[in-house]
């Protein structure tokens, strides 16, 4: 076997230029989604074999330029400079060519082999834009391959162009933008100084560095600092900037931008023929309705209703199947394994844990399908446009609305859905308050407690809890913005891309790669968490019980066989004994002991140790709180509809409506479940932020529940 | 500092670029065509807008501006949404004036 030579190809281009479609066309299913080191920017790689070469394609983040003002731009630039891909394909949207070529002028300044994929050339033609590609290639000094990404046209030509460059070198050299006499003079001065330091010129192009120095590029300053000649270079750069400042009225970077656009419009006016100056197309008419303050809002509400139902209602059935499959698997092991620790580990720990991971999969797949539709059609940015007016006042991004809405169903897909928010700070602030959008798993607790204490107005009480969640979220955003995330918000400038009909293939790819990422990344964390929680709730095992349950069961059986009691009486006796035994077991376990020991801490909220244990078990999953309460109150594993559990809660003299309400407040606010936290950790890639999330939500829950209980007591409520 | 010195005498004009018919994008009328003049304030916003095709000298059309929420503009065959806070810093003039 001859070892195939590997070629690294990077795909650069504006957002919405069809870059991802071309990437999908080239690599097909051979993709791998990861993250760039240390950041939550998706890194997509794929492989393909062509003419005896193994081509590795890297989809760089979509950017409008290569400045150092956004993380995406820094990452794209770093990859190009440090990884030195063999070829860079610059995807240029032909229907929006001038703006797209702005990035091209900057790529030309780096030392790279460029190919322009002139994408969506069919759409440009429809709009009356006729491009003489050969002439434009000459003017830019870059080979151009016309493509139509969504029809898979031009892919072979693109691959051939790559091989051509790799085998025969470049036939064209990118034409450099001339920045005018004065700037060019300063550039060549800086060039000369930089060129004397070979440690710099080995990895960077001097002209590019000089230009970036004039543009005050913070990253380039940082990078040059490591070199010994930096002091001299910086001194000269300061002098150059001072000289230029005295010459020009405008900001220096403004002039540089101006020259680049000047160069582009020069080339475009030569090589492009516009048959129509401007055409109001379909997008115009759709936009009139979709971003209209009234109709737009109504349509948005309808869309969100659809997304929510797609995510949760449609996912209901598959989730039931998964639960059913897991239950029968558990039963299988219950039957073939002897009762004991191993049985419990496999059934409760591992199967329970795996089930806990994949039970979210239908939600996540449907949500990401919905998000892919919203993004690929172009509606997502309209939604952000509509919501920005409201969300901006709160201190969030227009796009924050979508993950927050999803949060009412489940925080796990909501955290994953936060990816649609590009800016890291906006995303983090949103993620920190998603939990207050009370998730569906907390609902059974509300139903139980409200049903027990407010049988007549359970709905109203529950509603007040949901409203409280929203109020807390708004206050927390304001607080976070004023403290930890001060003044870091990115400017709200967003492209409203033309409406497009997405291809099924790209929707499925989007859906699948994100769901797979969840399974692979979050799954392992959730699984290990659930084994730990199983351990905490099982060990140490109680050896001698307060009552001799085995003897009691034997006695009941005996009474039955001697016909002192009926069959149903015997069964209910045995169930009662078993419930009571599992209550003792839970109390004796580490989790139970923690619950008991935190009693002094939760006493100011009016909670006793039993509520403490129930709340701790809620970290496994919120709905577990109800079944734990069932166990602890000796009514057995139960659900929120259980009359027995309601009755024993309502009848308990230790509890009151006030305590019940404080409990509801606590449940609403305290730490999200472990699955949610696992995803939070994977998405933020920050232990600090995750611990902050766990800590502050629980502290806030404690504080507000305490205020409710103590305040209520002062007011004489009970 | 040159800019500061020039405007020191009439500070009420500090933000404008010297022309009398300058206005801010937040004040633009729907459907009208304007010429971009520049951006006051941060370099980050300036670079972002310029790289998205809204650079000084370019003509653009305002598609929505209803006094609240983002302003929608059409420039270089594409549409942009610009947050109200940002729009209050974007200097423009009417085309032809």
What do you see in this structure?
The complex is a heterodimer of chains A (718) and B (97). Chain A is elongated, with a radius of gyration of 32 Å. With 718 residues, chain A is α/β, with parallel strands linked by helices. Chain A contains 33 helices and ten strands. Helices cover 64% and strands 8% of the residues of chain A. In chain A, helix 16 packs parallel to helix 19. In chain A, strand 2 and strand 3 form a beta hairpin. Chain B is an alpha+beta fold. Chain B has a single domain (20-94), classed as SH3 type barrels (Roll), CATH 2.30.30.90. Helix content of chain B is 20%, strand content 32%. In chain B, strands 1-6-2-3-4-5 form a six-stranded antiparallel sheet. The termini of chain B are far apart. The A-B interface holds A 64-65, 67, 69-70, 95-99, 102-103, 127, 129, 216, 245-246, 250-251, 253-254, 257-258, 261, 283-284, 287, 291-293, 381, 384-386, 388-389, 392, 398, 490-498 and B 2, 38, 42-53, 55-58, 63-64, 66, 68-70, 72, 75-86. Strand 10 (493-496) of chain A pairs antiparallel with strand 5 (78-82) of chain B, so a sheet runs across the interface.
Write a concise keyword list for the protein shown above.
heterodimer; A: 718 residues; alpha/beta; Rossmann fold; Helix Hairpins; 7-stranded mixed beta sheet; two-stranded antiparallel sheet; 33 helices; B: 97 residues; alpha+beta; SH3 type barrels; 6-stranded antiparallel beta sheet; globular
Would you tell me which CATH topology of the domain at 5-168 in chain A applies?
A: Rossmann fold
Number of strands of chain A: 10
Q: Write down the Rg of chain B.
A: 13 Å
Major sheet strand order of chain B: 1-6-2-3-4-5
Query: Which two chains share the most extensive interface?
Result: A-B, 47 and 37 residues
**Structural category of chain B:** alpha+beta
Unreliable stretches of chain A: none
CATH architecture heading of the domain at 5-168 in chain A = 3-Layer(aba) Sandwich
Topology pattern of chain B, helix = H, strand = E: HEEHEEEHE
Q: Could you give the order of strands across the largest sheet of chain A?
A: 2-3-4-1-5-6-8
Tell me what portion of residues of chain A adopts beta-strand conformation.
5-15%
Instruction: Output the number of helix runs of chain B.
Output: 3
Q: State the separation between the terminal residues of chain B, measured CA to CA.
A: 30 Å
CATH topology of chain B: SH3 type barrels
**What oligomeric state best describes the polypeptide chains here?**
heterodimer
**Mean pLDDT across all amino acids of chain B:** 80
N-to-C span of chain A: 82 Å
Q: Which CATH first-tier class of the domain at 5-168 in chain A would you pick?
A: Alpha Beta
In the CATH scheme, the class of chain B would be Mainly Beta
User: What share of residues of chain B is helical?
Assistant: 10-25%
């Amino acid at each position: 076997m001859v070892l195939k030579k590997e070629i690294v190809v990077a795909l650069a281009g504006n957002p919405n230029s069809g870059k991802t479609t071309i990437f999908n066309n080239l690599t097909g299913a051979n993709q791998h989604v990861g993250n760039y080191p240390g950041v939550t920017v998706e890194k997509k790689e794929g492989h393909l074999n062509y003419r005896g070469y193994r081509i590795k394609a890297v989809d760089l983040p979509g950017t409008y330029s290569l400045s150092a003002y956004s993380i995406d731009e820094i990452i794209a630039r770093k990859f190009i400079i440090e990884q030195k891909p063999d070829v860079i394909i610059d995807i240029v949207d032909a229907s929006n060519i001038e703006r797209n070529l702005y990035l091209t002028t900057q790529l030309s300044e780096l030392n790279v082999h460029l190919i322009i994929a002139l994408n969506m050339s069919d759409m440009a033609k429809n709009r009356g834009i006729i491009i003489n590609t050969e002439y434009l290639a000459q003017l830019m000094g870059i080979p151009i391959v016309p493509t139509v990404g969504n029809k898979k046209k031009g892919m072979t030509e693109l691959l051939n162009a790559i091989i051509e460059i790799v085998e025969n070198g470049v036939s064209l050299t990118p034409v450099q933008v001339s920045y005018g006499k004065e700037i060019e003079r300063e550039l060549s001065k800086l060039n000369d100084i930089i060129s004397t330091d070979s440690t710099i010129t080995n990895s960077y192009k001097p002209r590019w560095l000089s230009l970036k120095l004039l543009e005050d590029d913070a990253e380039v300053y940082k990078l040059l600092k490591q070199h010994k000649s930096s002091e001299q270079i910086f001194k000269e750069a300061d002098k150059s900037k001072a000289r230029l400042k005295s010459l020009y009225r405008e900001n220096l970077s403004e002039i540089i931008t101006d020259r680049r656009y000047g160069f582009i419009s020069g080339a475009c006016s030569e090589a492009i023929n516009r048959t129509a100056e401007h055409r109001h197309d379909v997008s115009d008419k759709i936009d009139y309705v979709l971003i209209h303050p009234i109709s737009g809002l109504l349509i948005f509400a309808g869309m969100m209703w659809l997304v929510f139902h797609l995510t949760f209602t449609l996912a209901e059935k598959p989730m039931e199947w998964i639960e059913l499959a897991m239950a029968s698997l558990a039963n299988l092991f219950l039957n073939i394994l002897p009762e004991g620790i191993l049985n419990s580990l496999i059934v409760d720990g591992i199967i329970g844990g795996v089930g806990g991971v994949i039970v979210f999969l239908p939600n996540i797949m449907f949500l990401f399908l919905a998000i892919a539709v919203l993004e690929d059609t172009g509606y997502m940015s309209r939604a952000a446009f509509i919501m920005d007016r409201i969300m901006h006042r709160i201190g969030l991004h227009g796009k924050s609305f979508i993950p927050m809405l999803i949060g009412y169903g489940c925080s796990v897909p909501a955290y994953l859905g936060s990816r649609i928010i590009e800016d890291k700070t906006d995303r983090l602030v949103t993620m920190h308050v998603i939990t207050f959008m009370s998730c569906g798993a907390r609902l059974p607790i509300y139903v139980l407690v409200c049903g027990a204490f407010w049988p007549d107005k359970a709905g109203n009480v529950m509603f007040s809890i949901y409203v409280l969640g929203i109020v807390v979220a708004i206050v927390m955003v304001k607080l976070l913005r004023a403290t930890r995330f001060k003044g870091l918000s990115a400017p709200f400038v967003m492209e409203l891309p033309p409406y497009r009909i997405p291809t099924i293939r790209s929707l499925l790819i989007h859906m699948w790669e994100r769901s797979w990422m969840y399974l692979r990344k979050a799954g392992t964390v959730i699984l290990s968490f659930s084994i730990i929680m199983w351990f905490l709730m099982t060990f140490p095992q109680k050896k001698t019980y307060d009552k001799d349950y085995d003897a009691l069961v034997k006695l009941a059986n005996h009474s039955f066989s001697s016909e002192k009691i009926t069959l149903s009486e015997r069964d209910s006796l045995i169930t009662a004994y078993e419930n009571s035994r599992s209550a003792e077991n839970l109390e004796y376990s580490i989790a139970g002991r923690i619950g008991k020991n935190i009693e002094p801490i939760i006493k100011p909220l009016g909670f006793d140790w039993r509520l403490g244990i129930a709340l701790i078990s809620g970290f496994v999953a919120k709905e577990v709180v109800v079944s734990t309460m069932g166990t602890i109150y000796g009514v057995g594993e139960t659900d929120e509809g259980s009359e027995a559990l309601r009755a024993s809660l309502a009848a308990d003299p230790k509890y009151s409506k006030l305590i019940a309400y404080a409990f509801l407040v606590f449940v609403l606010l305290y730490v999200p479940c472990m699955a949610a936290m696992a995803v939070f950790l994977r998405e933020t890639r920050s232990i600090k932020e995750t611990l902050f999330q766990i800590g502050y939500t629980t502290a806030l829950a404690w504080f507000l529940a305490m205020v409710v209980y103590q305040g209520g007591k002062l007011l004489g409520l009970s | 500092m040159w800019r500061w010195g020039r405007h020191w005498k009439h500070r009420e004009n500090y933000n404008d670029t010297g022309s009398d018919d300058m206005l801010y994008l937040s004040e633009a009328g729907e459907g009208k065509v304007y010429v971009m003049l520049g951006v006051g304030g941060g370099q980050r916003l300036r670079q972002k807008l310029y790289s998205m095709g809204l650079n000084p000298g370019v003509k653009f059309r305002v598609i929505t501006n209803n006094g609240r929420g983002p302003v929608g503009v059409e420039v270089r065959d594409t549409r942009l949404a610009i947050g109200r806070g940002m729009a209050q810093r974007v200097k423009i003039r009417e085309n032809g004036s």
